[in-house]
Amino acid sequence: MQAQPLNAADFSLIEDTLLKHGNDHSVLNPSELDGYFTALVSGPKHVEIEAWFPAIWGGQHPDWESPEEARQFFDLCVRHINTLARQLAEEPHAFVPRCEQTEHQGHTVTLAEEWCFGYLRGVQVANWPPLPTPQAELLGAISDCAEQDNFELPADLDVASHQQQVAELAPAVRALHDYWLSQRAPTLHAPQIKAP
């Protein structure tokens, strides 16, 4: 069960739980969580559950209504992080960041700010060391995208340029994953996380 990809109902439950228990310092939605997990499985070393799970909530565990509620959310997280780890290691070209979309000036626009913000959260939690210049530039492109304001897109937004920037995220993520994969010990390739 921990290897089964999440479906739409699972992501909806994740969103409801993040909204219910979130705060000013927590992950806000499934898009940000997807970016967060992507960075965790892409980095130089395995990150323990004890580090990454509280960081979803800004360092504090939620006041769960029941052990079942906590277990259900945790199990969904484990399934999704394992799916991402496996996909990036075995089918990297199938990887697509889970971004939200909106309508703007008659165009469908993919919004990546929150996904990128989650990715940077993952980089911080995983404590990535400094990168060589080519990889640092890739991470810089993700960081630049995280600083966009998706709440009020400007009326004169260059949609084509904006969407090109979003389209460049997946190749950047794959390249960063491949870089760190080449630096890891063989036993750390695509680790699978097991729920305790």
Automatic annotation (TrEMBL):
Signal peptide positions (record): none
Cited SUPFAM superfamilies: YgfB-like
Record-linked Pfam families: UPF0149 (PF03695)
Name of the protein this chain belongs to: UPF0149 family protein
Organism: Pseudomonas weihenstephanensis
